Structures are given as structure tokens and as C-alpha cells.
């Protein structure tokens, strides 16, 4: 059974935050339903624990490490986007799909650096299918990070009433610290 425990640990690690359904564990390890709980109870680690949520099984860090993980996440998110990156992100969000040359025409300057930064941070993705040039789109991570369910929630236009709202929105993007 120890070998099966190592295999289970590897599977849970590979599954990440999606976990694995109990039935899938039974199938992959070729064990029956009654053998799953005793196998989970054998797991012993100073760093990790195995938890069950509903029908899925997850590998998690023990809560004692949460302050360190939080500090790491905060440290990584404190890096703010430059004004050039924010402008580029706004252009992509409002005009997608958009090419790099379109962005440069709108901004009037080379935008390779800001585009690269946005791609590296997972806020923008590149698609080339059925297009003569690379087309840039915001990602679901962009929506998630800024609490949007869809792009329809972006401020709509730059009339005097909504220009202030748009400026505040994109300033909040930087304050949320991508």
C-alpha cells in the first residue's frame, strides 16, 4: 500500500487545485472504494495534508505555512503596472481583438515592453489563428483579478461622466497590484 500512497501523492500534486474525484483515485490506483479512506489516513507529511471536499481529494499545505504563503503572494502582487502597461491594457480591453501595431497607432509609441509584461502576468493572451497578425485579448484571469464577470462591466465611454469612472477603474487595476 505504501507504493499506492506515493502514487496517490504524485497524482494529487499533479492535479493541483482541481483535486481528483474519489472514483478516479479508485480507478487509477486499481483499488476498491473501501480502500480509499485507509490509504488517505496513512498519509504523513510535515508540510502537506490530504483533504476531502465533497467527492474530491486534494493535496494541501498545512495551515501553519499560510502566513509564509500569504507573504509571498503579497510580495508578488505588490509589483505595480507602469502607466504604459495600464494604457496598453485599457486599449486591449476596450478594442479586443487588437494587434500590436493597432496599439502602437493608438498610443503613438512602441508597445512591445508593456504587451510583454501583460502577457507575462497572464492578463493578456495572444492568438494568431485566422489572422494576418497576432491578436491580443484579455484573459479570464484579467476578469477574475479585477472582479469582473465580463468585459461588459468595463466603464462604457469617455464622456465627462464616465471618464472619471474609467480613470478610477484603471487606477484601481494598478492598486490591486498585478
From TrEMBL:
Q: Which keywords are on file for this protein?
A: Cell cycle, Cell division, Chromosome partition, Cytoplasm
Q: What biological-process GO terms show up in the record?
A: cell division; chromosome separation
Signal sequence range? none
Q: Name one Pfam family in it.
A: SMC_ScpB
What InterPro entries would the database entry show?
Answer: ScpB_csome_segregation (IPR005234), WH-like_DNA-bd_sf (IPR036388), WH_DNA-bd_sf (IPR036390)
Q: Which NCBIfam families match?
A: SMC-Scp complex subunit ScpB (TIGR00281)
How is this protein named in the record?
A: SMC-Scp complex subunit ScpB
Taxonomic source organism:
Macrococcus hajekii
Give the gene name: scpB
Amino acid at each position: 500500500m505504501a507504493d499506492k500512497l506515493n502514487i496517490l501523492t504524485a497524482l494529487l500534486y499533479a492535479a493541483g487545485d482541481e483535486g481528483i474525484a474519489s472514483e478516479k483515485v479508485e480507478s487509477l490506483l486499481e483499488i476498491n472504494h473501501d480502500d480509499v479512506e485507509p490509504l488517505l489516513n496513512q498519509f504523513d507529511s510535515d508540510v502537506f495534508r490530504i483533504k476531502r471536499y465533497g467527492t474530491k481529494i486534494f493535496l494541501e499545505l498545512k495551515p501553519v505555512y499560510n502566513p509564509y504563503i500569504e507573504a509571498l503572494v503579497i510580495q508578488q502582487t505588490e509589483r505595480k503596472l507602469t502607466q504604459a502597461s495600464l494604457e496598453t491594457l485599457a486599449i486591449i480591453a476596450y478594442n479586443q481583438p487588437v494587434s500590436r501595431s493597432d496599439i502602437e497607432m493608438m498610443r503613438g509609441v512602441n508597445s512591445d515592453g508593456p504587451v510583454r509584461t501583460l502577457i507575462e502576468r497572464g492578463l493578456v493572451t495572444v492568438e494568431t489563428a485566422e489572422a494576418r497578425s497576432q491578436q491580443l485579448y484579455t484573459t479570464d484571469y484579467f476578469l477574475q483579478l479585477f472582479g469582473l464577470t465580463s468585459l461588459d462591466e468595463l466603464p462604457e465611454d469617455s464622456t465627462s461622466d464616465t471618464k472619471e469612472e474609467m480613470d478610477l477603474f484603471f487606477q484601481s487595476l494598478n492598486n490591486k497590484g498585478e
